[in-house]
Amino acid sequence: MRWLNTPMDLIRHLRYFVMVADKGHFGRAAAALGMTQPPLSQGLRRLEEYIGTPLVHRTRQGAVLTSAGDRLLAHARQLVDESDRFLTEAVRVADTRGLVRWGAGSALPDRLLTACVAALCAETDAAVATESGTTVELVDAVRSGSCDFAIVEHPAQVDGVESGPVTKVPRWVVVPSHHRSAQAERPRFPMLSDLTFAAPPRAGNPAAFDAVRGLFRDRGLDVDTTSARDDRAVLAAVAAGTHFGLSTTAPGSAPGVAWLQLAPAATAVRLGVVWRAGADTDRFVAALDRVLVRERVR
């Protein structure tokens, strides 16, 4: 099957489809989901591409199901309802065990990840469970209730959740150790034009991905991009000699990799806490924010 090697948050996208079918209109469906219309429309289009058939006719009056959409709607609704029941029961079970569930975005460096867990443990006697994921995945997890709160990268689409202040945390430009920029007394972004930019996939946080590309372009650098799931994958691509990247891993002794400080304030990663509205998470959110502030760019 063509979709087996293509990851997708299927339940989230089926929820989009069901809501559009129920409301008959993208704007009303987006409002009901607590999000804006463009990501809803894009998400439904990704679902259609994923399964290989259109589900909705887009008209000036709204959204009308295709024959395939009409046949698949009941199945989609059943999966979404079962997912909601599962999450409700999971929350109930977690609450009886005294479990704090939080999410750590892939941009959060290891040194901050462990500091955050320690800070949360200091606030409660309950067990602390950490979920890793992209910004899109974690915002959706918080919105659905499978996570109580999370640290995510900004800018981001945070419709349907509460969002705290954004803190800039150091991030470095990493290049092959033999590259001319690593040997230059005053390296500049255009020197990286012969390298490919290794970065997490755009789907994980389109807004932040586009902001970084815009930053490069403003500084005279327009490069091709290849996907690297996380910091380790970025460093591996850089060590191979043909890529550069951005890394929150502090400068160290990684063979084949050199760390550059290029526009440190602009390249810093912007991190913030998101949480469910009405959830009793104030002390946890404050504890995580204190960890971020200690590491901020000065």
UniProtKB/TrEMBL annotation:
Recorded GO MF terms: DNA binding; DNA-binding transcription factor activity
Keywords, comma-separated and alphabetical: Activator, DNA-binding, Transcription, Transcription regulation
HTH lysR-type domain ranges (all copies): 9-66
Record has Transcription regulation as a keyword: yes
Classification via InterPro entries: LysR_HTH_N, LysR_subst-bd, WH-like_DNA-bd_sf, WH_DNA-bd_sf
Matches recorded under SUPFAM superfamilies: Periplasmic binding protein-like II (SSF53850), Winged helix' DNA-binding domain (SSF46785)
A Pfam family annotated for this UniProt entry: HTH_1
Gene3D superfamilies: Periplasmic binding protein-like II, Winged helix-like DNA-binding domain superfamily/Winged helix DNA-binding domain
Any one of the GO CC terms: protein-DNA complex
Protein family according to the UniProt entry: Belongs to the LysR transcriptional regulatory family.
Protein name (record): LysR family transcriptional regulator
Provenance organism: Rhodococcus coprophilus
Name of the gene this protein is made from: hcaR_2
